Amino acid sequence: xxxVTIGTRDSSLAKWxxxxxxxxxxxxxxxxxxxxIPVKTKGDKILDxxxxxxxxxxxxxxxxxxxxxxxxxxLAVHSLKDLPxxxxxxxxxxxxxxxxxxxxxxxxKNGTKLEDLPPGSVIxxxxxxxxxxxxxxxxxxxxxxxxxxxxxxxxxxQRSDLAGIVLAAAGVKRLGWEERITQVIPxxxxxxxxxxxxxxxEIAENRSEMARMLSILNDHETERAVLAERSLxxxxxxxCQVPIGALAEIRENRIVLKGMVASLDGKAMLRAxxxxxxxxxxxxxxxxxxxxxxxxxxxxAIR
Length: 303
Description:
Blueprint: E1 3-9, H1 12-28, E2 33-39, H2 42-45, H3 51-54, H4 62-69, E3 75-79, E4 91-96, E5 104-108, E6 122-124, H5 128-137, E7 142-144, H6 150-159, E8 164-168, H7 169-174, E9 183-184, E10 199-204, H8 208-214, H9 220-236, E11 244-251, E12 254-262, E13 269-276, H10 279-292, H11 295-302
Helix pairs in contact: 9-10
């Protein structure tokens, strides 16, 4: 029996995601053997530099993609929000797994909600997107850069004077940390990252047998929603280290997409919304609306 190799980042959350994919495939193909191959990516190795300063093209994906192209692994499991909107030539996304809660959550040190924190409270986050939106909502808060896996961030919160940290709800829930959540942050305050909460599976384009095998993992509603968000991101030429937020939901078969671009200090905040049936077109419509409001100047200043 041949072994199907599943590449994953080496963090506990990434391995949880890859284990989940493996368990679904084992249920569907009980006679097939699946093996996890953990890979350390550049983003996992450089932990003492803010993400925005490293440059973000494939920060958490490049090594896995090289392994796919070299046939060292058969498929790679990613958090979709880590994947650039333009994949390397020869690779494709074969499955968008059903999305977990896409929003961000606040883990407060003593259960105090974001809106009730005293002025000058320090929030830990390495995301320019989260920081810009939270500063827009609470210009009186301070921010500290926070890198590392979820366990490291939680430990830093306990050992520091941080008032709380902001994380993706999906990761917190997948690690079984629901009781640590102080609040789910409403999307009126903070729009999530493009693709947040979705596990994506990447393969080489010429592996049609892999594409067939992975089709059982694909969730059609999730696929339409995240393709709309990625279409918006591609038009804005954004990466994971710019303050762009988006969330698409499917309502009665229509895609409803909200998008946001903010300046680093949160003072300029552009928002747009559109709906329709074609994910790419809906994404382009929201992006073009944001560009018409002046998004290009904001993004160029950040780059």
